[in-house]
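Narrative of accomplishments. A recurring question from our advisory board has been how the design workflow behaves on a single, concrete structure rather than in aggregate. To address it, we present the structure tokens for one chain from the evaluation set, followed by the sequence designed for it. No filtering or post-editing was applied between the two.
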């Protein structure tokens, strides 16, 4: 019978602690709701202090911020393809053929009675001018001058020999084709440097180094997404806001609603609990009932 009475007393004590547990759950829910309210107020205040559109304009970015629709490598590749077509039109096969005709004319075979002006190795590259009246394997008579072939540069001497002249023309034509190839490459490169920055800007990219005279200006590594730049600048602006702003808002809202910060527990608790007398624990009460 005694054990039954002890069990009834123990259950009664447990029932007394159920409302306490419920009350604890209630204030914890209230605390969490207040902290959420503080976060929302902080975010709203932050949006008022740090305006995205203003940040974009302050950093020379277009608004709204563009997210690139194409990879910058694809943009450059497509531009180069377009420019190569323009270069092919600028330095067409017709253009090359005309230049080849000029090369052959400028390096044609000399004949008797041709009036020529040729450089020599005589007296500081003296120019000899006159009509060709005679030539053999060793010299040529030009006007009233006899000039040894040994005193002529190779490209002049070769023009007195059909085989050597044909070889000279072929060498000159090869040089011409290399030059045209170089001109086409330079055309594409120069146009790309001129147009690519605008293409990248239109697509939402932004130069880290905006010095147009620098070598790295047109390098793809120098161009990043405007959104990347914007996100970085926006984060910097937000971080520049008073670091204590969030804590100040939390402190105000919690204290207005009767909470204090417990540094030992590291959380907010109702102010009424701070000075409340310590109560005998449930375990101790039960121990007193059932004995040791």
């Amino acid at each position: 019978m005694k054990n039954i009475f002890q069990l009834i007393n123990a259950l009664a004590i447990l029932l007394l602690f159920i409302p306490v547990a419920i009350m604890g759950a209630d204030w914890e829910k209230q605390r969490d709701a207040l902290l959420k309210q503080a976060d929302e107020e902080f975010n709203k205040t932050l949006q008022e202090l740090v305006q995205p559109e203003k940040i974009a304009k302050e950093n020379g970015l277009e608004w709204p911020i563009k997210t690139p629709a194409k990879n910058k490598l694809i943009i450059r590749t497509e531009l180069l393809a377009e420019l190569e077509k323009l270069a092919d039109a600028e330095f067409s096969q017709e253009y090359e053929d005309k230049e080849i005709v000029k090369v052959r004319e400028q390096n044609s075979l000399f004949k008797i009675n041709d009036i020529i002006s040729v450089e020599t190795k005589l007296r500081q590259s003296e120019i000899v001018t006159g009509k060709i009246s005679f030539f053999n394997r060793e010299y040529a008579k030009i006007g009233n001058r006899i000039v040894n072939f040994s005193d002529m540069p190779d490209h002049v001497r070769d023009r007195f020999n059909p085989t050597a002249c044909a070889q000279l023309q072929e060498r000159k034509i090869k040089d011409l084709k290399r030059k045209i190839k170089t001109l086409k490459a330079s055309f594409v490169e120069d146009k790309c440097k001129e147009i690519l920055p605008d293409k990248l800007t239109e697509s939402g990219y932004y130069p880290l180094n905006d010095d147009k005279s620098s070598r790295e200006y047109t390098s793809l590594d120098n161009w990043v997404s405007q959104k990347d730049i914007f996100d970085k600048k926006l984060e910097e602006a937000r971080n520049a806001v008073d670091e204590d702003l969030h804590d100040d808002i939390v402190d105000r809202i919690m204290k207005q609603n009767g909470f204090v910060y417990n540094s030992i527990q590291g959380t907010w608790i109702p102010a009424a609990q701070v000075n409340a007398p310590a109560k005998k624990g449930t375990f101790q009460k039960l121990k007193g009932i059932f004995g040791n």
